[in-house]
User: What shape does this take?
Amino acid sequence: MKATKTLLPLAFLLAPAAASAQGYYGGGGGGGYYSSPQAKLPGGFHDRQGRLIFGFSLGLGGMSDRFGDIECFDCEYSPIAAGVTGHIGGFIGPRLALVGELQGSAQTISSDRFTGDTYTLVQGSLVVAAQYWATPQLWLKGGVGFANLQVQRSYYGDGIVDEESIPENGLALVGGIGYELLSAQRFSVDLQGRLQHGSYKGIDNSVTAGTIGVGINWF
Assistant: This one.
């Protein structure tokens, strides 16, 4: 799928950046955003064990289904998907956290140029995910849970949802990779790539949403 192929290069871009940044954020160099030397663990990792983690992210990307890309054939432009995510959980180890995560992705699939009515495909997911810090700033995430898919209609394109289709429910799988651009003991801002996959038996189809965006986290 295009969403998957678009995000794969992100891992290769972030990995070298994580390695080169260790001198600034990690144990090899001065400065950085550590609150104190006692906040660092071997390898330059933050000591966040036992802490609460919560935050959100916003991103842009695309959506596709099993039979082809999701497009807006009657649009005068090529719409992109928007994604928003919120999570809360806790660290069960120095480098591992378990979180509950709510994610939503949406993309316009039809826009009537005469009436202005728009139809938007919306996929939501509620999952339990594990987030692991491979380096002090580079993390990986994966989770499983429930997915929901529906089409929303907005009269006149005013953004207000006036009609909704009967929702389809299914299995959700999510994955992500991120790099903390600002990495502190109790706060971080990261660049991240996300995949959200929903599988629906009722319509014998699956939908994948991929986004690249920015996340803000508190610990």
